[in-house]
Amino acid sequence: MKHLLPALLLFPCVAVAQRPAPTPPENLVQYAHPLVGTAKMGHTYPGATVPFGAVQLSPDTDTLSYEQNGKYNPEIYSYCAGYQYKDPTIVGFSHTHFSGTGHSDLGDFLVMPTTGPLQLNPGTADKPQSGYRSAYSHATEVAEPAYYKVRLADHNILAELTATTRVGIHQYTFPQADESHLILDLMAGIYNYPGKNTWTFVRVENDSLVTGYRQTNGWGRTRTVYFALSFSKPFKQYGSRNYDQKQPYRGFWGRFDQAHNWPDLAGHQLRLHFDFGPTTSGQQIKLKLALSPVSTAGARANLRAEAPGWNFADYKRQGQAQWQQELSKITIRSPRRVDKENFYTAMYHAFTGTTIYQDVDGQYRGLDQNNHTAKDFTNYTTFSLWDTYRALHPLYNLVQPRRNADMVQSMLAHFDQSAEHMLPVWSHYANENWCMIGYHSVPVVCEAIVLGNAPFDQNKALDACATTARQRWYDGLGLYIDKGYVPEDKNGASVSKTLEYAFDDYCIAQAAKKLGRPDLEQEFRQRATNWQNVYDARIGFMRPRLADGSFRPKFDVLTTSDPAYIEGNAWNYSLYVPHDPAALIAKMGGSPRFVPHLDSLFTMNLPDKFFAETEDITRDGIIGNYVHGNEPAHHAAYLYNWTDQPWKTQPRIRMILNKMYHQGPDGLGGNDDCGQMSAWYIFSALGFYPVAPSSGEYALGSPAVHGAVLQVGQGKTFTVSVKNQSDKNVYVQSARLNGKLLTRPFLPVSEVLQGGTLEFVMGGRAAK
Amino acid sequence: MKHLLPALLLFPCVAVAQRPAPTPPENLVQYAHPLVGTAKMGHTYPGATVPFGAVQLSPDTDTLSYEQNGKYNPEIYSYCAGYQYKDPTIVGFSHTHFSGTGHSDLGDFLVMPTTGPLQLNPGTADKPQSGYRSAYSHATEVAEPAYYKVRLADHNILAELTATTRVGIHQYTFPQADESHLILDLMAGIYNYPGKNTWTFVRVENDSLVTGYRQTNGWGRTRTVYFALSFSKPFKQYGSRNYDQKQPYRGFWGRFDQAHNWPDLAGHQLRLHFDFGPTTSGQQIKLKLALSPVSTAGARANLRAEAPGWNFADYKRQGQAQWQQELSKITIRSPRRVDKENFYTAMYHAFTGTTIYQDVDGQYRGLDQNNHTAKDFTNYTTFSLWDTYRALHPLYNLVQPRRNADMVQSMLAHFDQSAEHMLPVWSHYANENWCMIGYHSVPVVCEAIVLGNAPFDQNKALDACATTARQRWYDGLGLYIDKGYVPEDKNGASVSKTLEYAFDDYCIAQAAKKLGRPDLEQEFRQRATNWQNVYDARIGFMRPRLADGSFRPKFDVLTTSDPAYIEGNAWNYSLYVPHDPAALIAKMGGSPRFVPHLDSLFTMNLPDKFFAETEDITRDGIIGNYVHGNEPAHHAAYLYNWTDQPWKTQPRIRMILNKMYHQGPDGLGGNDDCGQMSAWYIFSALGFYPVAPSSGEYALGSPAVHGAVLQVGQGKTFTVSVKNQSDKNVYVQSARLNGKLLTRPFLPVSEVLQGGTLEFVMGGRAAK
User: What is the annotated signal peptide range for this record (chains A, B) (predicted)?
Assistant: First the structure.
């Protein structure tokens, strides 16, 4: 430092002296709270992950089985992310978790540090001392982006977790203890059941490195995850127990003591322990567990590349720096800390929904179970597309364009590998789960084409969309193509399918138009009108129709258990024509009849009986009959924009933002669904929303922020400024895009992507 | 042809005209009979394979389970190779088979063509019509190297099989039939039981290509084989049945008819059928099924590389040409066809015992379950080393030196990948089975070093041997190192282990000597004397010794169920000091006492009760108390060479050759053990035998051939000529190596490998 002083004196920094020092960027990481959504039905996890990280290292609080007495166990539903805030014990820390899903899997490689006599069973929540699990108190718990900390009361161990993209990093601070152990439980898992492990394999490579894999037949039917686990301190000894009831063929193995220090294990039901002997107070044992979708060799390479050292604080700092960078894709102004907390918690969840799925060298396991190398893109997985096509992928297109293009390429690779020649429906870890309905990769692929964020063979991509949309065997699609609707007597969820197919078809038409393929455009433009075929004009609702053309007589617009609909009742689904609200409104009698109809959605009192019908809806996620906790009506509040009273959207949006999102573990009104709920928040708080991805337009709402700057790619920024903002001033008085007054309540997405400014002026009364 | 005539006239071929045209090489393939050993306990398979082929495409005649009522089913033992000659039905044709083993696995990808209504169950042997299996008659059966043919009576289908190294090729000639099917049974397997499949995976890529894999927890604990199956004719439709009792998580899959034309299947218990509609008489459907140890992509590449076309006759011709080439490594003269049949059947079995285990691009699955690429060598598997170190690998060193060096490199790669840091014991398909005792890779590696057939880092290889031999945890080895013997009260099979460890240690000493590493040589030269520590001089037998140094009181030299010995009784094992017979004989009282002792081995009458004690020994494989059906005494008849009556070896050898090997399905007196029994035949018929591999010497016997030419590598030949040969002239009168009279009954292997001549003169009486 001393040597610098003369230099500074010799070259006084005049330019700096003449203007004020730049404000250091605001620490946005402080606002994102991973614990939000960990109670009730948010289904998020509180543990450590980096943006889009392949590792989600997080505590699991129970070990329920997916089946009890041979039947689905409904209790398991609360444990989609492995953690429930109400639970009094932590079983251990596992390395993979979905964020906000309504079905689950994962929970791979559960690790637990313990003191005292070795216990290989997890024990039970009411008697944690009966096993390796531990009681804990939320008072000792800290959850930040890329950092999680908790004190394990029963063992008096301070557990800290952080992560890189592919490596989970553990730091355990031990008390003085006679014995210390690390448990590696390969039987553990989320949505587990005793037959779920098709195989597990472990090698103790030396006294501080363990490799292996877990192969499961779960929600992902054929899923394998490989690991390499490095210890900061050599273990003194180790052992395992194989709980397999049957191990035939192993006659000659009987010569060996495989329970102790045997380095080569495999079976369906393995638990391992690594023993470190006595510890002194404050002694730390650190672990680095790298994942790979390809091989243990890949996991070791990932470990070397991403986590060569042992400085936990550095990894935490790097992880939080990554979060700072990604959260900075949108900086907002707001006088209230809680608004920033809600916003950046939503950003945090939006950027954990999909995950990187390849080794550092680009290798990943494909749908065909072969290893592939991603060339010119990064391969992603966890595509909960029925949810995320709506707002999450549009958000990515806006502030994560490179990643969204990579995700589209990942979907196209999936198509190339698909035996069914389909784009993904709900895919994770080289599996198609066929969960939910529609072919909602199509809007994602097509929006990327329409917006020009498509660095790949666009015609081939469009062909993949068309091929997907023409698979006659798929879920009523042949009937839909022939009849223009899915007949309910032939195929369930027929109304939902017809409506969603029609929207997806619209997206193909839009992309075909962009690429100048009129035949394709015409075919799918026509198909996009099929929503009309399930509209019963006599009653003004989308109604199940039978193969003979008649509408099904039995019909209740409010019930959530009508098999013609999925995750939504007829009332909500009847609003689902996102690509042509004007036509829908016209059919429904135009603004005079539609506006009060839509008003009633938010104001009616849904009878209690409907809440008992389905596990997925509680009062928390509902406003009147508007179900924000599920997705089909996510666009509904924006529909006023197509009526003669567009301002009515604005207070609705502000109300939903206020009611459905808040801080605290129960801060989400329903499953976050891999970030779709959060993406809704982000768009709506900014003042606009992608009602129909691929349309090229956002619909205006009412901004909740006081201002925002969006990084829209290639160094461009898009600034939202809001004048006269307040909780009462929810009505937009005027909006100017790049200085030009908007005369319609819509924004062209292309102009937003070019950077520029959007200026809202707010007021307390509707600007009719 | 017409155009050639003037050219021939213009350039008359004077040289050819002056000497007789060369004799075309004799067709040796005609003499090799794959059916030999398929009855009783030979455990060979009759199907189609090329030399060292990765595919062994062969009929399986029953579907017994490895377990019945939760216990090992002893009946299964007959089905090590899937086929028993006595059986009246064929279940189907599967692609992998061990040759001659005494434990089993494999039987992957069973295919069966059928006519008539679809049957997905195999049915039973007594009611073949109850399933897809078929009765057959041996009268319709032809088994040749690389070719198998049989008529499936129930379906009136002529089945023909051939193979390339990695592709099984099927040709099915159908009758006129209303329906024709091909069954692909992924539940089937050898040594199968319902839980054996850890996973199977199938993709119907298009109407004539299917890929997938089978992963099993069998004898190989973690074994995966991938396939690509191509049909000569597109199937009209296909279907499957998943017999898994439980398939949770598959809720959304219920929308799809996965039983019919569903291209993407996985589970534990799958059977598929491919339907071709009506057939006309004589219509052929051909299949090519390629294997890979790595991936379905690898299997497809193997298919393209090795079997691009559909000409079955060409593949058969190529396969038999390969056999002709490999069988020609030794050409023999003999006036009797049956002698050639015995000899070339032995050659055939010797060259099917170990198998190539890598894709055409060199990739293979390693012991660590990672994919590796064999650089500068070809990777092999199926190492039944307790058997094959004795004569099979020495035979390979002699006439397959390149392959033997590749096998040694495969073993060294195994060592590098071994979590236990051990050379293979009994390994197949990336698994260590730990079957039998000893560390008998060591003699194979060390003999290669001693003989200079070692194109690899020889010191590293020797270190691997020493590391293996110093693993204190291994099977009594720590005790052996400390005490000089394995104490029977601490570790079973203690006498067998002590004797075999001592021999293996000798081999390390020999290699250390060759490489000039005196410390290592001294250490293991000392260990090689440990056989003395279990020799009880009071009774003249190798006897179980306890940790306190005393000999175990209870002792019966004849019983085959003494736990201190394995696959041999004390009488036979007491002769097992192959590396120092002279010292053994001296201990046993010298020639005067040893010669009659050894005589009695062949002449005594073993009480019947011993045959009931173990499944592995029948009267067929025994002469007196000499058990040729198991390996420990394979060198015994040669021990006379170290006495003052060496000629006594000669009639014994001729007797064993005559008694233990003949034509017909029951032509082998015991398990062929991956070619060890056959290698014994080959050496002994040539007139010499490797009593102690790594010693650098063969012991002389009595040639059964009338002459032989051996291709000993690098274009060199070693010629055995035999004068006055006859069934009665079993005594060697003289033997000259390269013209020089042998004064000891031993041959230096190094001189044989340099090429040259060995001239026997035979006579009817011992040349004392």
Answer: 1-17
Q: Please, which residues 410-439 of chain A have a Cβ atom closer than 8 Å to chain B?
A: 418-420, 426, 432-436
Tell me which residues of chain B, numbers 203 to 242, contact chain A at a CB-CB cutoff of 8 Å.
203-205, 211, 213, 215, 217-219, 221-222
Residue-level pLDDT at B617: 56
Measured CA distances, A22 to A9, A17, B456 (Å) = 22, 12, 65
Instruction: Classify the C-alpha dihedral B230-B236-B237-B238 as positive or negative.
Output: negative
Residues A88, A97: Cα–Cα separation, whole Å: 20
User: Does A431 score more than 90 pLDDT?
Assistant: yes
CATH classification for the domain delimited by A472-555, as one of 1.10.10.10, 2.60.40.10, 1.20.1610.10, 3.40.50.2300:
1.20.1610.10
At what angle are helices A494-514 and A441-450 packed, to 10 degrees? Answer: 20
| Contact with chain A for residue B369, Cβ under 8 A | yes
In chain B, what residues touch A295 (CB-CB under 8 Å)? 369-371
B354: Cβ–Cβ under 8 A, 6 or more apart, which residues? Answer: B52, B380, B381, B382, B383, B388, B392, B407, B674, B675
Q: For domain B31-325, is the CATH number 1.10.10.10? A: no
* pLDDT tens digits for range B245-279: 888 888 889 899 999 999 999 999 999 999 999 99
Nearest by CB: A370 against B246, B295, B436: B295
Nearest chain A residue to B420, by CA: A263
H helix intervals, A90-216: none
- ipTM value for the complex: 0.94
CATH 3.20.20.210 fits A32-325, yes or no: no
Q: Which residues pair with B89 in a beta bridge?
A: B135
Amino acid at A555: F
Residue with tokens 């270190």: B463
Residues 461-480 of A with CB under 8 A from B: 473, 475
Q: Where are the alpha helices (DSSP H) in B543-691?
A: 570-573, 581-587, 590-603, 609-613, 649-660, 676-686
| Chain B residues close to A435, C-beta within 8 Å | 252
Cα dihedral value A567, A570, A573, A577, nearest 10: 160
Q: What is the pTM of this model?
A: 0.95
Distance from CA of A246 to the nearest CA of B (A): 9
Mutant choice from B249, B368, B432 vs A, greatest count of A C-beta within 10 A: B249
Spans of chain B, pLDDT less than 70:
1-21, 611-619
CB contact under 8 A, A213 and B253: no
Rounded distance between C-alpha atoms, residue A432 and residue A439, angstroms: 12
Q: Express each pLDDT in A123-178 by its tens digit.
A: 999 999 999 999 999 999 999 999 999 999 999 999 999 999 999 999 999 999 99
Intervals of CATH 1.20.1610.10 along chain A = 472-555
A20 confidence band (pLDDT: 50, 70, 90):
low
Q: Per the CB < 8 Å rule, is B419 touching A193? A: no
Residues of A with Cβ-Cβ distance to B419 under 8 angstroms: 203-205, 263-264
What class is the B377-763 domain? alpha beta
**How many angstroms separate the Cα of A456 from the Cα of each of A445, A749, B19?**
11, 21, 71
Per the structure block, which two tokens stand in for B128? 């073949």
Residue indicated by tokens 């008072």: A139
Amino acid at B650: Q
* Range A338-471 has CATH code 1.20.1340.10: no
Tens digit of each residue's pLDDT (9 = 90 or more) over B704-747: 999 999 999 999 999 999 999 999 999 999 999 999 999 999 99
Numbered ranges of CATH 2.70.98.10 in chain B: 31-325
| C-alpha distance from residue B105 to each of A201, B34, B613 (Å) | 20, 20, 25
Sign of CA dihedral A270, A271, A277, A280: positive
Which residue of A221, A264, A435 is in closest CB contact with B266?
A221
